[in-house]
Amino acid sequence: MTPASLEFLSELVRVRSGVILQSEKSYFAESRLAPLARRDGHESVEALLDSLRRHWDEKLAAATVDAMAIADTAFFRDREVFEHIGKVILPALAPARPDGVVRVWCAGCSTGQEAYSMAMLGVQVEERVPNLKLDIIGTDLSQRGLEKAHSGIYTQFEVQRGLPIRLLLQHFEKTGDMWRASERLRQAVRWRQLNLLEDRRSVRAFDILLCRNVVRYFDPATADRVLEQMAGALAPDGVLVLGAGETTGAPSLARDESGPSTFRKSSAQGQVAA
Amino acid sequence: MGLVVDDSRSVRKVARRILESLDFETAEAMDGIEALAFCKAAMPDAILLDWAMPNMDGLEFLRLLRKEPGGDVPVVVFCAAENDPAKIAEALNAGANEYIMKPFDGDIVASKFSMAGLL
């Protein structure tokens, strides 16, 4: 890939998804885009990018950004996060919700493992905390990721990363070589395409917002702007959980030291401490 | 101490390397009979256990192990080609702590060992 093509691709991906491509990773771009180039009838990735540069094609541009989406995820990634949500956050939130509904948003849900992990956690906690119900929504920019998430179908390799065998047997059915999330699990999550970079006003207030291993790929200013906007979508006593090692300088968010990578609305800190 | 039980020499070699990378001093057995003799002499902390083996298979070994004095101590992680849900449930009922479906790699073993409380 020529430096000019890599620069064009980097700019396209940055503007559309906020993700900063590492310039030394052109081999990564090549391997991600090769199938798309073939499908779209181009001789090479270079030819695909060249064609896009000369004759703008919105669908092809979107497919290119989609193909570059980072899809590194696993069930119950960072187990301590899910333990904290199950043992501390949910039992504290449930009594404060008269209807028992706890609203969960997985932002940047990729292929769905995290949202399904929350759904499985919900089933576990519902047995201990009466009248609790998780309302889970998973969003991502990648249409391909969402299609897979919606299907609930995973390879044998994927269901062995992070998913305890008992939960696999409880919540998945074997179909051929693949494993499919149960009807109950699939009913528990709704999926929507959403670009976190776009300005929007949240109509709903979320109690648990997971945005893990997403903003680390943004530049710091973009990351803070995205997370500041997310703070506006949090319920007053809601929590935002970032990925391990991620932090934020967004003014409306303050670190909650009682949980791993956990943040709350800064205005809510006093209330929580009291 | 970790014990790798598998009739395939190459699988034992790969598994040993993975267990050693997870800081387990590692021993090997090629079937259930050898594994049981090993456990009677020195109970390991972890056992990575194949299912289909000559002489004594993994399931029979596990049932006998759990009846031994101190046989409830080792964390047993099956690592077998068998991937039928009913069969896996049978292994869990017999006292397996976790289950890996072959093929496997170091990430899966580390992930499963961590779930089983070994890491």
Most residues in contact, chain pair and counts: A-B, 13 and 17 residues
CATH topology label of the largest domain in chain A: Rossmann fold
**Broad shape of chain A:** globular
Number of helices of chain B: 5
Summed up:
Chain A is of the alpha/beta class and about 270 residues long.
Written description of the protein model:
The complex is a heterodimer of chains A (274) and B (119). Chain A has 274 residues and is of the alpha/beta class. Chain A has helices spanning 3-17, 26-39, 45-54, 58-67, 79-93, 113-128, 143-151, 165-171, 183-187, 220-231, 269-273, and strands at 101-107, 133-140, 153-154, 172-175, 178-181, 189-193, 206-211, 234-242, 253-255, 262-265. In chain A, 39% of the residues are buried. Mean pLDDT of chain A is 92; it is low at 270-274. Chain B is α/β, with parallel strands linked by helices and 119 residues long. Chain B has a single domain (2-115), classed as 3-Layer(aba) Sandwich (Rossmann fold). In chain B, 44% of the residues lie in helices and 18% in strands. Chain B is globular, with a radius of gyration of 13 Å. Chains A and B meet through helix 8 of A and helix 4, strand 5 and helix 5 of B.
Please name the defining characteristics of this protein:
heterodimer, A: Chemotaxis Receptor Methyltransferase Cher, domain 1, Rossmann fold, seven-stranded mixed sheet, globular, disordered C terminus, B: alpha/beta
Which helices and strands, and how do they pair?
The complex is a heterodimer of chains A (274) and B (119).
Chain A: H1 3-17, H2 26-39, H3 45-54, H4 58-67, H5 79-93, E1 101-107, H6 113-128, E2 133-140, H7 143-151, E3 153-154, H8 165-171, E4 172-175, E5 178-181, H9 183-187, E6 189-193, E7 206-211, H10 220-231, E8 234-242, E9 253-255, E10 262-265, H11 269-273
Parallel strand pairs in A: 1-2, 1-7, 2-6, 7-8
Antiparallel strand pairs in A: 3-5, 4-5, 8-10, 9-10
Helix pairs in contact in A: 1-4, 5-6
Chain B: E1 2-5, H1 9-21, E2 26-29, H2 32-41, E3 46-49, H3 58-67, E4 75-80, H4 85-93, E5 98-101, H5 106-115
Parallel strand pairs in B: 1-2, 1-3, 3-4, 4-5
Helix pairs in contact in B: 2-3
